[in-house]
Structure formats: structure tokens, C-alpha cells
Write a structure and sequence with these properties.
By secondary structure, the protein is α/β, with parallel strands linked by helices. About 45% of the residues lie in helices and about 15% in strands. Helix 9 packs parallel to helix 12. Bound molecules: zinc ion.
Length: about 375
């Protein structure tokens, strides 16, 4: 580990982003410290909503503004390719411009984040470099070589991640690293059949050498819609999470943990989707919906207490989107109005974002919520 003779560069907090935007780390640090308005209370978390289109972005902004919540919008490589018509850099330009314009009129502060950027492949490097230019936060996932389907040696993970920190921190862009291997499939670019827990000693080395302020350790979560066997609860290693937090706080108490593979399978969404499918006479898909397994919220709650203040959600957004689409088709499959279908889906996705933000305690941060948070009912029949 004698590659770096100097200390990793500190995150430049003087950087001013476009109006109402800031580095993800600034927002998640407020959450770790329980800061809302001028007051300090309980720790809360920012769900990072993985978005793939303007509907997802619009729904998230509405949810943030309804609750006065801190906003975090994340883009995977494949989402950026989708937005950019195959070109992830063009996808970054479109997404960054769109969000910048939305944020300028917003009542809350938001951050934009590259999910699972890697600095290993040539293609990955280009996207990370583009994201450092255009977003406010990047993930440098160098713990797994996804192309070769193997975990990276610690020194290589540190080396590549440090290169990203050297580039991003001086311009105020926060960096999230990953240590350990997370099983499951997030999308075509990030898939792993194996999983390892994060080792506390390696954690200290990694944090000291890379200088990252956000880190995704592996403590038992899984990517994808099948996080365990149907009927069995996903069990996370919460005691390891607390042990890791102690180590991280000893190095810098501004370090934030990130939970990946943390989507919930809402019974409200499952029940609604199965109902729509049955009414449409579709059986095979009903089975799939019945077998989806998410990470229960009580487990995630335990993680927030252990300093996991960024909670990634992707699968659940996809499921809610699909549930909304099925509901719209079931209600009226002959409506010749794209806006109507989009509006139905948008309502559904907005409701699930509001639900997740309330669960994470992320409301009343920038202003009082516009709804009575205690009375919010997540029911897709009434959105
Ligand atoms: Zn992930």
C-alpha cells in the first residue's frame, strides 16, 4: 500500500453547484446528524431513487417537495444508455440538464449520483469522468470486475477508487466506494453470483487509503427482485454493520454507509399487481410476482441506526411502475391518450416514493411537509 505517499484530497465544500443542488455527501451527512431545518433530532436516511426516465424524475421531485425532503436521484450505466439512445455520456448530459432545470424551481435541495460506476474498464472510466463533470456524486464500484466476473484484489479496488477521489473531491463531487461483493443482478452491467461480507480490518485500510466519505459495505443485502427464498425473511448482519460503523467513525465521523440491494417488496404493491393480473387473466406473471422477495423494512431500519444514511432503491421502483401500468391497462386498455397512462403510472410511483421517504424519516428537512405524514396511507387503489 505504498502507492500513495500523500493524503487523499478532502471533499471541496466550497464548490457551488446549480441552484438547489449539492453533493450527495452534504445531504446524507445532515441525515446522519439528524439535521432538519435548524434543529437536530433523530438520524434519518435518504432513499436514492434509481430513475430511468423523466416520469421517475418528475415523480421523485413531487415526492421530495410534498415532504420537504432531501432528494437523491441515481442513474445506473444502463439507465444512462437508455436515456442517451445508447450513449451513456449523452444520457448524462440530458439527465443533468433536465434535473438542473427542475431543481432551479424546487423548494428542496437535491443531489445527482452515478450508481455503480467502475474505473476498471475503459467504458466505465469514461462514464465516471463524465459523471464527475455533470453530476454531484459518483459511485466508484471497483470491488468486482463485472466483465471478468471476479472480485478485485483489495489493492486494485483501493487504487482505482483513489484515482476517482483524486479527480472528484477537488471539484466537490462526493465519491462512494464499495468493499466486499454483493450478490444478485442490478442490471446487465452489474451482476454477481457470489457475495462476501466486508472485513472490518480491510474497511479501515480502504477508508484511510481512498479518502471516500461514502461506502457500501456488504452485510447481507442482495440486488434484484429475489433477495431470498419466498416465505423466508432476509436477514442482514446488523451487528457487523455496527462494528463497521465504529471503525469508520474512528477514522472520520462524517463517513456514511450506503445500503445496496435494499428494495422492499411492498405487500400493497404485490397485492395490487396480482389483483390487476388476475383480472387481466395473466397467470404466469402472477407466479413471478408472488415469488418476489424484498428486504423487510425492519431490517433497513436497523441499518439506518448503524449509519446507513443512503438507502438504494431500484427494484421496488420498477415493480411499482409495472403495477401502475397494469392498473392503467386494466382500467382502460383502449384509451388513446399517452398522457393518461403516464399520469396513472406517475401517481403510483409518486405514492411509493412518498411512502419510502416517510419510512426513512426524510421529511421536514427543507420545509414543513405539505401533507399530514402520520395520516399518509400507501394504497395504490387511491392514488
Ligand atoms: Zn447496487
Amino acid at each position: 500500500m505504498d502507492k500513495f505517499y500523500t493524503q487523499a484530497p478532502k471533499l471541496n465544500r466550497e464548490r457551488r453547484f446549480p441552484q438547489n443542488m449539492q453533493a450527495a455527501h452534504g445531504l446524507v451527512l445532515k441525515a446522519k446528524n439528524g439535521e432538519k431545518g435548524g434543529a437536530r433530532g433523530n438520524r434519518y436516511a435518504l432513499p436514492a431513487f434509481n430513475v430511468t426516465n423523466t416520469q421517475g424524475i418528475d415523480a421523485a421531485f413531487t415526492a421530495f417537495e410534498t415532504l420537504g425532503a432531501s432528494g437523491l436521484l441515481a442513474f445506473s450505466n444502463s439507465a444512462l444508455k437508455h436515456i442517451g439512445g445508447g450513449d451513456p455520456i449523452f444520457g448524462l448530459e440530458i439527465a443533468a440538464d433536465y434535473i438542473e432545470k427542475k431543481a432551479a424551481r424546487s423548494s428542496v435541495q437535491v443531489a445527482t449520483h452515478l450508481d455503480h460506476g467502475d474505473y476498471i474498464s475503459e467504458k466505465g472510466r469514461k462514464v465516471v469522468q463524465g459523471a464527475v463533470e455533470m453530476l454531484t456524486s459518483v459511485m466508484a464500484d471497483n470491488s468486482t470486475d463485472h466483465a471478468a466476473k471476479q472480485s478485485m484484489p483489495l489493492k486494485d479496488n483501493i487504487g482505482f477508487t483513489r484515482e476517482v477521489v483524486n479527480m472528484a473531491h477537488p471539484v466537490g463531487v462526493s465519491v462512494e466506494g464499495e468493499l466486499g461483493v454483493l450478490a444478485g443482478e442490478e442490471d446487465e452491467d452489474t451482476k454477481s453470483e457470489f457475495s462476501t461480507y466486508t472485513d472490518p480490518e480491510e474497511l479501515a485500510t480502504f477508508l484511510n487509503e481512498t479518502g471516500v466519505l461514502m461506502l457500501a459495505p456488504t452485510i447481507g443485502t442482495m440486488h434484484g427482485p429475489n433477495k431470498g427464498k419466498p416465505g423466508q425473511k432476509v436477514k442482514l448482519n446488523i451487528s457487523l454493520a455496527h462494528e463497521l460503523l465504529k471503525t469508520a467513525n474512528g477514522i472520520d465521523d462524517e463517513i456514511i454507509f450506503v445500503a445496496h440491494g435494499a428494495s422492499t417488496m411492498y405487500e400493497e404493491v404485490r397485492g395490487y399487481a396480482v389483483e390487476q393480473l388476475e383480472q387481466l387473466g395473466i397467470d404466469a406473471t402472477v407466479q413471478t410476482w408472488k415469488n418476489f422477495v424484498g428486504t423487510d423494512w425492519d431490517q433497513i431500519q436497523g441499518l439506518i441506526e448503524a449509519g446507513f444514511c443512503k438507502i438504494n432503491t431500484d427494484t421496488e421502483n420498477r415493480q411499482t411502475y409495472l403495477a401502475g401500468l397494469l392498473g392503467a391497462v386494466n382500467e382502460n386498455a383502449a384509451k388513446i391518450d399517452i398522457r393518461w397512462y403516464e399520469k396513472q403510472i406517475w401517481n403510483t410511483v409518486t405514492a411509493s416514493y412518498i411512502q419510502k421517504l416517510i419510512m426513512a424519516g426524510n421529511y421536514g428537512v427543507w420545509h414543513e411537509p405539505k401533507i399530514d405524514v402520520g395520516k399518509f396511507v400507501f394504497d395504490l387503489h387511491n392514488v
